[in-house]
Fold each of these.
Amino acid sequence: MTTRQTFLSSLVILLVLGGAVLCALRWQAWFGMPEEPVWQGSKTAYTFHCFGDDSLPGFVQDEQGYWQDTLLPDTLDILLLGDVHSLLTHADYDTLASRVPHADCYAQLGDWLERGYEYYAQQLAFALKGTRLDSIPVISCPGNHEYHKGLRRPLSPLWNEMFCHPKNGFAGFENTTYYVDFKGLRFIALDTEGLRWLHDYTRLNTWLTGVIRQASDRFVVVIMHHPVYSASRGRFNPGVYLSCVAPLREADLVIAGHDHQYARQLPFVEMTSTTTEHTPRFRHYHERQGVTSVYYQQLSLWGDTLRMRTYRLADGELYDECFLTR
């Protein structure tokens, strides 16, 4: 055996052994789905009002296809949550509804469920039941916890049972990547966990560039689970960055979760509503960064002004605020 062959054989052996060790250390994180809990109580429907429905409470569509609030048509208020992980209770949702009493709809940034199991869907349905949020539309994007772990990493079948979002995304991402048009605002939701192959990233880039530019003089707000710029250590997503950073710089607000931190460097914002478990990564270009609290947001649109307010979940105190005008 030549020296070259010996080197190559040794390299292959090292790679195989290294891969085996790595898989052994990370098996639970990559492939280990926790056992599904059994829901013990009575069951309730876990379908939500979504902008893919033909009609919605409190909204009508005008001749241009824009969703219009029927009660206060000149304003739009959106409550926004991120990374709930099935931890908010009925009392929490009641409190949020009372703090944003004029919310026309609400949005969430993925990882609403701890896992894509019926147990957590029932838990969410009972937590929301009877609150005002149960009667207004939701805009949602899946996070990694709505996907099952494994070699294929499929989206939980519950997602399509729970949500009927607009089917205006690109092929293969119907009901998870889409946009909702309001008068003065295009609201885009991206599924960043479902990206698997190179053509997924390139098609996302092409689609996203088009829908942002087609918004014309309207504001553009994007929600996504994985951030373009990570505010936590070891959480960088190169595929999301390379495919999304250029088109998203043309948006007015890009709000992401996943990293369980709060950080703002407009147009990019990260937010969490339940935990701050990951190690923060301080960056000099962040205009605001909070690492010890969890938050919710209120987006308000009136006329040519879009306002983002960030509140502490614990006491409702205003933490951050910014205004965008056209």
Amino acid sequence: MKIPGQQIARFLERIEKKEIRKLNKEKRKKLTLAVVLVGNSPEQLSFVKIKKKLAKKLAIKFDLIHLKRTPSFEKFMHLVKEKAVDAKTGGIIIQQPLPSQLQTDCLYDFLPLDKEIEGHHRKTSFLPPIGLATITLLKYVFANGKIDSHLLVDPKADRTLMKRALRNKKVVLLGRGFTGGRPVGKTLSYFGINFINVNSATPNPTEYLKQADIIISAVGKKVISPEMLKPGVVLINVGLRREGNQLKGDYEEKEIQKIASYYTPTPGGIGPLDSLYLYHNLIQAVKLQK
């Protein structure tokens, strides 16, 4: 069964809109998300455009700082810090991937904890949006395809629920990249979900896939084929690859749709929920700042 990520996201949008209207009224101004983009990559511009479109739907101000040329690290961090501490900014994100000369593990240490809403900071109180989106998809599966308000993740309330639901399930996470596998793995660990992380250095990865009840794939290449799967497996795709003018995931949907009990399509699977949880975290950030 195909998991309707777009439909789930639209339903949850209505819940978030109520929260946003309430906060906008209290603050007497729109919530503001600051987005820093470096370069002119068509894919990055496309992702930013999607975020901007959703911000408009949710009545959130979208403050884009677009640096078409790569600045020095010192200039870049000065700009980011200046924007982050601005009282008008409710939350700030740095569009990834960055040029190599700007990429560093300590990058997010320069941002205020209550405004770094992507969950990259070592001491963050926010879970990554892509991880929260993954949990919503798993909740949908365990609810047998029912869409209602319980699908919106509450990290504290859902912790015990998810740990119990997945206690006897074999979960495999493919990939460990900065924007995919790593944040999903961090979220699974928070919820107490045991999983095996398979990556390019793992010997005999197919053996783990054949035994998996749930596979979350965040590679960005076609790495899953039908003979690797057991019947009834749940497939959640995080990775993206481009084939001509088409965006595809880490498997061909036509090949796996009769094997998997549930699977996400690409596009229209996890992507809409990933974007929505970015604004969910923004709401929580503004509440903390109050």
Amino acid sequence: MSNLENLKKQKIKLLAEKKPPRAREAAKQLKISEAEFVALSCGESCSQLDSSRFEQLLTKLEPIGEVMALTRNEAMVLESHGIYKDVSSAHGHIIINTKQIDLRLRVSAWKYGFAVEENARQSLQFFDQFGEATHKIYIGKKSNVIAYESTLVEFSISAGFNSLLIKDKPKIKIENLAIDVAALQKDWQNLDNVHQVNKLLTKYAITRPQAYRHLGDKAAILAKDSLRTMLEIASTKKIPLLMFVPNYASTHIHNGTVNKLMEMGPWFNVLDPGFNLHANMDLISETWLVIKTLDQQNSYSMEIFDEHQQPLMMVYLHPDAKQDINMQNTWQSTLQNLTQG
């Protein structure tokens, strides 16, 4: 029996279990990437998509109507229901900025894509060169299935498991370099917009948490369960939020309030109509209160990181609420009350 046949047999066995694992966990059990796990079904319940046309594909999804967009990293999963419309595409990047679906997609970092049918559920799933999921789109009850199937005819190709060349993900090395603290603090104070932060980090060759440890009163470590507490307060006080969930190649954004909260094991969840957030609290390593002074006004954010100091989530007060002084004060005091010691 070939390795491919053996893997297919093991996949069938896993999916036949009373409670079959999700693809991400099943792939780990088979010691392959999630992209490879999905590709095992090519020619049956799965077809591969033309990777050279991902940008074009995403600009043609509007006729399908309402779908569910899903983006995740190791600890956070964000899901939004809406329509992929008003798509801006340029140089390997896609921007969708609607109230329901707000995405920044670095499609140039997407390597593989598949149309998948599993448990009577259809989806488009995209992966990077390491076989990790970058973004997924699920067909729902309100979707136009005929338009979806027409899209598959146009963008599917004849390929499968053997066409994948999955690379090993490099281990993240965090170096503790000497930092000119005074210069770092001055540069931080002189930031004009949030997009300059990455340039600053590159200049000093440091991670965000490394920078935050040297910012004095502009950053403070928060308690481990701060995300849960913040969401509980935001739900009670109806604080409108701007929530970012990034991974290597995509950033998914939620605009608005959170309401229905539910804890299930290590997962703390927001289960609202049209929007879900699933946060694995066990995988949060550091949470920070960060203050940036932009346009002579302090901007307070909660920023969450994994054990490798990589960002899991960033949360701000929604810009529409920044003219409401009472809401600003509520947001700032919420974060300040979560600081350790």
Amino acid sequence: MIRVGDEIAILGIDFGSRRRNRANGIVSGLDARGFTVAVRQSFGNCPQYIQRRSVTPANTAEARVRELASLDSEAHSLIRRADTLFVASRSRANAGPAGGADISHRGGRPGFVRVEGGTLSIPDFRGNRYFNTLGNLIGEPRSSLLFLDFETGDLLQLQGLASMDWDPAAPDLVQGAERIWQFRVARGWYRPRAAALRGAFIDYSPVTLRTGTWDDSRS
């Protein structure tokens, strides 16, 4: 539930042009039409690892939301075929005005996220060198992931704890990875046809094609 005074993060992506922008701030107003954000920070990100899609509006479904205490077969399937995920994090509590909430994008070829029981292993490919997300996860491991099936509109939202794999050999497990981090699922929600858009795949980002997956591991 969004309330006035809450910290909030916003991510805008144009999947047709691979442009994206991140912002965060405080919810300053709320009414029946929506909410207003007093922006504290805003910056553009590089277009790396964003797969191009032609996005069109779609009707949402009134299907029942499934609350997950653990990942079921549909959740496993969605994760394993995903080429995109979104990660929400926040800075450590004493970061002050320079901190706040954040949401970012991660991309790769289908199979770039490994699922083992209730733990996801996610390669961190070369990015913009800001380390906003990784810095947040190290300081505050509580985080959320969102997976979207662009064809059906199904959403998988996960809450859990993130941790870094500091083993120097870990990046060798996936081509292009500079490090690996894990996400241990605490709970989740599967929302069939809940997204009000659909995305027809156009092509992979050129840098995505230079990365590997767990299935073609070099280990």
